[in-house]
UniProtKB/TrEMBL annotation:
Keywords: Hydrolase. It holds the Pfam family YgjP-like. It comes from Variovorax ginsengisoli. The keyword Hydrolase applies. It comes from the Bacteria. GO terms for molecular function: hydrolase activity. This is Metal-dependent hydrolase. Coiled coil: none annotated.
Length: 185
Protein backbone atom coordinates (compact mmCIF):
# COMPACT_ATOMS: atom_id res chain seq x y z
CA UNK A 1 0.00 0.00 0.00
CA UNK A 2 2.91 2.34 -0.67
CA UNK A 3 0.72 4.80 -2.58
CA UNK A 4 -1.69 5.04 0.33
CA UNK A 5 0.82 5.02 3.17
CA UNK A 6 -0.14 8.51 4.32
CA UNK A 7 -3.83 7.74 4.67
CA UNK A 8 -5.49 6.47 7.87
CA UNK A 9 -5.06 2.75 8.53
CA UNK A 10 -8.82 2.21 8.61
CA UNK A 11 -9.07 3.62 5.09
CA UNK A 12 -6.18 1.45 3.91
CA UNK A 13 -7.94 -1.59 5.36
CA UNK A 14 -11.08 -0.65 3.46
CA UNK A 15 -9.11 -0.47 0.21
CA UNK A 16 -7.43 -3.81 0.94
CA UNK A 17 -10.88 -5.33 1.37
CA UNK A 18 -12.10 -3.83 -1.91
CA UNK A 19 -9.11 -5.39 -3.68
CA UNK A 20 -9.67 -8.75 -1.96
CA UNK A 21 -13.31 -8.65 -3.10
CA UNK A 22 -12.24 -7.74 -6.64
CA UNK A 23 -14.25 -4.54 -6.50
CA UNK A 24 -11.67 -1.77 -6.76
CA UNK A 25 -11.49 -1.72 -10.57
CA UNK A 26 -15.28 -1.50 -10.90
CA UNK A 27 -15.44 1.28 -8.37
CA UNK A 28 -12.90 3.34 -10.29
CA UNK A 29 -14.52 2.70 -13.66
CA UNK A 30 -17.92 3.54 -12.28
CA UNK A 31 -16.68 6.80 -10.83
CA UNK A 32 -14.71 7.70 -13.96
CA UNK A 33 -16.26 6.09 -17.05
CA UNK A 34 -14.02 7.64 -19.69
CA UNK A 35 -10.42 8.58 -20.33
CA UNK A 36 -9.25 12.03 -21.31
CA UNK A 37 -8.11 12.74 -24.85
CA UNK A 38 -4.89 14.57 -24.17
CA UNK A 39 -2.78 12.13 -26.15
CA UNK A 40 0.25 14.07 -27.33
CA UNK A 41 2.87 16.34 -25.80
CA UNK A 42 1.41 19.19 -27.83
CA UNK A 43 -2.07 18.57 -26.45
CA UNK A 44 -0.66 18.26 -22.94
CA UNK A 45 1.20 21.53 -23.33
CA UNK A 46 -1.99 23.30 -24.43
CA UNK A 47 -3.92 21.77 -21.54
CA UNK A 48 -1.32 22.83 -18.97
CA UNK A 49 -1.02 26.34 -20.37
CA UNK A 50 -4.79 26.81 -20.20
CA UNK A 51 -4.79 25.87 -16.53
CA UNK A 52 -1.74 28.01 -15.84
CA UNK A 53 -3.33 31.02 -17.54
CA UNK A 54 -6.52 30.52 -15.57
CA UNK A 55 -4.91 30.27 -12.14
CA UNK A 56 -1.22 31.13 -12.23
CA UNK A 57 -0.82 33.68 -14.93
CA UNK A 58 1.99 35.43 -13.08
CA UNK A 59 4.16 32.38 -12.52
CA UNK A 60 7.22 31.97 -14.70
CA UNK A 61 6.63 30.76 -18.23
CA UNK A 62 6.90 27.04 -18.90
CA UNK A 63 9.58 26.09 -21.39
CA UNK A 64 8.50 22.51 -21.79
CA UNK A 65 5.60 20.19 -20.97
CA UNK A 66 5.75 16.53 -21.91
CA UNK A 67 4.73 12.99 -21.16
CA UNK A 68 7.78 11.06 -20.00
CA UNK A 69 7.98 7.30 -20.38
CA UNK A 70 11.14 7.19 -18.28
CA UNK A 71 9.54 8.74 -15.24
CA UNK A 72 9.57 6.15 -12.55
CA UNK A 73 6.11 6.12 -11.07
CA UNK A 74 7.29 4.74 -7.75
CA UNK A 75 9.64 7.60 -7.11
CA UNK A 76 7.61 10.32 -8.77
CA UNK A 77 4.05 9.13 -8.49
CA UNK A 78 2.65 12.34 -9.79
CA UNK A 79 5.08 13.81 -12.27
CA UNK A 80 8.02 16.12 -11.93
CA UNK A 81 8.63 19.78 -12.07
CA UNK A 82 12.16 20.94 -12.67
CA UNK A 83 14.06 24.08 -13.25
CA UNK A 84 16.86 23.47 -15.71
CA UNK A 85 19.53 26.10 -15.36
CA UNK A 86 22.15 26.70 -17.98
CA UNK A 87 24.48 29.49 -18.85
CA UNK A 88 23.58 31.18 -22.11
CA UNK A 89 25.59 34.10 -23.44
CA UNK A 90 27.14 34.69 -20.04
CA UNK A 91 23.77 34.74 -18.28
CA UNK A 92 22.25 32.08 -16.12
CA UNK A 93 18.91 31.14 -17.62
CA UNK A 94 16.48 28.78 -16.00
CA UNK A 95 13.78 26.92 -17.77
CA UNK A 96 10.73 25.49 -16.12
CA UNK A 97 9.56 22.07 -17.21
CA UNK A 98 6.65 19.86 -16.25
CA UNK A 99 6.78 16.16 -17.02
CA UNK A 100 3.92 13.75 -16.57
CA UNK A 101 4.48 10.00 -16.40
CA UNK A 102 3.22 8.21 -19.51
CA UNK A 103 0.86 6.00 -17.47
CA UNK A 104 -1.30 9.11 -17.10
CA UNK A 105 -1.98 9.26 -20.81
CA UNK A 106 -4.66 6.71 -20.04
CA UNK A 107 -6.58 8.13 -17.12
CA UNK A 108 -9.76 10.20 -16.76
CA UNK A 109 -9.44 13.95 -17.24
CA UNK A 110 -10.12 14.56 -13.55
CA UNK A 111 -7.00 12.62 -12.62
CA UNK A 112 -4.78 14.20 -15.26
CA UNK A 113 -5.99 17.58 -14.07
CA UNK A 114 -5.02 16.66 -10.52
CA UNK A 115 -1.45 15.85 -11.58
CA UNK A 116 -1.14 19.04 -13.59
CA UNK A 117 -2.55 21.11 -10.73
CA UNK A 118 -0.05 19.45 -8.38
CA UNK A 119 2.91 20.28 -10.60
CA UNK A 120 1.70 23.82 -11.31
CA UNK A 121 1.33 24.44 -7.58
CA UNK A 122 4.97 23.45 -7.14
CA UNK A 123 5.96 26.41 -9.29
CA UNK A 124 4.97 28.55 -6.33
CA UNK A 125 5.23 26.24 -3.34
CA UNK A 126 8.10 23.78 -3.12
CA UNK A 127 7.01 21.73 -0.12
CA UNK A 128 3.88 19.66 0.39
CA UNK A 129 2.68 22.00 3.09
CA UNK A 130 -0.51 23.86 3.93
CA UNK A 131 0.11 26.64 1.43
CA UNK A 132 0.79 24.09 -1.28
CA UNK A 133 -2.49 22.22 -0.75
CA UNK A 134 -4.41 25.48 -0.43
CA UNK A 135 -3.19 26.36 -3.91
CA UNK A 136 -4.09 22.90 -5.21
CA UNK A 137 -7.64 23.10 -3.88
CA UNK A 138 -7.96 26.62 -5.26
CA UNK A 139 -7.26 25.22 -8.72
CA UNK A 140 -9.33 22.09 -8.16
CA UNK A 141 -11.84 22.06 -5.29
CA UNK A 142 -11.94 18.24 -5.46
CA UNK A 143 -8.16 17.98 -5.39
CA UNK A 144 -7.94 15.71 -2.33
CA UNK A 145 -10.55 13.26 -3.60
CA UNK A 146 -8.82 13.16 -6.99
CA UNK A 147 -5.42 12.51 -5.47
CA UNK A 148 -6.86 9.70 -3.41
CA UNK A 149 -8.56 8.20 -6.45
CA UNK A 150 -5.35 8.47 -8.45
CA UNK A 151 -3.51 6.66 -5.69
CA UNK A 152 -6.23 4.00 -5.73
CA UNK A 153 -5.52 3.46 -9.41
CA UNK A 154 -1.77 3.28 -8.85
CA UNK A 155 -2.39 0.75 -6.08
CA UNK A 156 -4.58 -1.24 -8.44
CA UNK A 157 -1.88 -1.29 -11.14
CA UNK A 158 0.87 -1.99 -8.63
CA UNK A 159 -0.99 -5.11 -7.55
CA UNK A 160 -1.02 -6.37 -11.14
CA UNK A 161 -4.41 -4.91 -12.02
CA UNK A 162 -5.26 -4.24 -15.67
CA UNK A 163 -5.28 -0.83 -17.35
CA UNK A 164 -8.74 0.58 -16.75
CA UNK A 165 -8.88 3.28 -19.39
CA UNK A 166 -6.81 2.00 -22.27
CA UNK A 167 -8.22 3.34 -25.57
CA UNK A 168 -9.12 -0.13 -26.86
CA UNK A 169 -11.27 -0.64 -23.79
CA UNK A 170 -13.37 2.46 -24.38
CA UNK A 171 -17.04 1.74 -23.88
CA UNK A 172 -16.38 -1.52 -22.09
CA UNK A 173 -17.59 -0.39 -18.73
CA UNK A 174 -18.24 -2.95 -16.05
CA UNK A 175 -21.54 -3.24 -14.23
CA UNK A 176 -22.64 -2.25 -10.78
CA UNK A 177 -20.00 -1.05 -8.38
CA UNK A 178 -20.40 -0.87 -4.62
CA UNK A 179 -20.81 2.41 -2.86
CA UNK A 180 -17.70 3.10 -0.87
CA UNK A 181 -16.83 5.87 1.50
CA UNK A 182 -13.47 7.12 0.35
CA UNK A 183 -13.57 10.31 2.34
CA UNK A 184 -10.38 12.01 3.33
CA UNK A 185 -9.13 12.01 6.87
ZN1 LIG B 1 4.73 17.22 -5.14
Amino acid sequence: MKYLAHYPLALQAQVRQLIADGKLADLLRKRYPTAHEVRTDRALYAYVIDLKNAFMRNAEPLAKVAFDSKLHVVRHALGTHTTVSRVQGGKLKSKREIRVATIFKEVPLELLRMIVVHELAHMKEREHDKAFYALCTHMDPDYHQREFDLRLYLTHRDGGGERLWAPELAGDVAGAAPACAVAQD
